[in-house]
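Troubleshooting log. The previous structure file for this entry was overwritten by mistake, so regenerating from the original sequence record. Sequence copied from the archived sheet and checked twice against the printout by T.R.
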Amino acid sequence: MLHELEVCLHGSVVGHLVRTSDEAWSLVYDRDVSQQASGGPLSVALPRSRDAHHGNAVYAVFANLLPDGALRRRTAHSLGISEGNDFALLGRLGGECAGAIRLRAPGARWRQTPLRRTLDDAELRNMIAVLPVHPLLSEADGLRKTLPGEFDKLPVRVEGQQVTVIMGDELTTHIVKPAKPGLRESVMNEAFCMALAGRFGLATAATHVIHGRVSVLAVARLDRTLDKSPATLNMEDFCQALGYPPNRKYEREGGPRLAEIADLLRQVSIRPGVDLRALLRWVIYTFLIGFGAGHGKQLALLHESCGPCLAPFYGLWSTHVYGEMNYRMGFRIGHEDRPDWLTPQRWHEFASTLGVRPDYVIAELRRAAESLPQAAAELADEFQRKNGHADVIRSIRALIEQRARQILVALEAEPIRVV
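Regenerated output below.
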C-alpha cells in the first residue's frame, strides 16, 4: 500500500506527502528547495516551514484535488480502489492536478515522450459516452490526471473545434464538459451564462461550444498558460485555502462562508479592494441568473508572481431553471439563502458580511438589476446565431427578468436602512 508521495510544484519536487491513516496526512517541505526557485508555498494554508504540517489543512489541500461526491465514487470503482481511499486515488491520478501541484511515487520520473490522440467527431462522441463508466478516462487510457467537481469532465488540449487527449505526462490546456445527465441543454446553459458574466464585467475563464455529434463546452484552464508548451500556474480553491474538506464545500454543510472568503482576501490578496468588488458583483450576478451551486470550490485564489489574488470566475450556470435541482443559493446572502426572501435588509446584512458600505452594495445591486436583462437579451440573439437555438436561454432570461423586477420593486418599497 502506498504511504508516501513526492509533491511537485511547477515540476520541481518541493516536499513529501505522508499518510499515517486514511485522513491523517502530513506534509514535509524539502529543506534544500528555495521558496523563490519553486514558486512559493503549495497553499496559503500550508506556508513553507521547517516543521511538518499535520491535520485538517493538509488533508483539505490534497483531497480537494479529487472529484467530488458520486463522481469520486464512480472513479474509485472504475479503478478498483475503495471510495474512501483518497490517498490511493491521488497516487493513481495525481500526475496532473488543478493548480501547479503534481504528485508521483517517490523516485518516479515524468515520461518525456509525448502521447497524444487528436479526436475526430466520432471519437469525441465515443469518449463522452465512456466517461460515465470510466470517469477521467483513468482506466480506459491509463491517464494520471484529476480534476475537482461533481460532473464528468476531461482535461485535454483544444484548438478551435479540435480536441486532443494527452495520455502522457504533458500538461493540458483546457477542460471539456459534456452535457450534465438529466439537465436539458446544460452545455448551452453554462456557455451562455459564462458569456453573459463577461458581458456583465466579470473576469472569467474563456469558453466556447464545440459542436458535433455531441456538443461539449471547452473551458480554457485558468491554471495553465495556453501556448504550445504550457506551464502551470498555481491556483487553489477556497476550501483548500481555508482548510475545509471536500464534503464540507457548501456553507449549509458547515463549509466556507462569504465572510471568511472576504477576510482571507483582505489578508493575502495583492489587490484586496479590486477582489472584494469582484466578489460582490459575482454574488449579485449569481443571484440574478439563479446559480444555486455556489460553494467554496467555485471560487479560487490564483498565485501570481507577486502574490495571490482572486482568480477569474468559472463554472457559472443557471441551476434554478431546473425544477429537479435545489432552489436555494449556495452561499447565504445576509442570513438568507432562499431567493424569494432576499429583501433589501438581507443585502444590508450581506454588506456587513463583506465589510463594505450598504449604500455601495445597494447601488451595485440596482445597477445590475437595471442592466442585466437587456444585456441578456442582446447576448441571446448573438449567442444563438453562433451556436443555434436553445430553449434554456429563454428560461434563463425569464428568470433574470423576474429577479431584476424583484430587486427593483423591493428597493422602491423598502429603502435600505443605513445604520
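The first helix runs from residue 35 to 38. Archived copy saved in two places this time.
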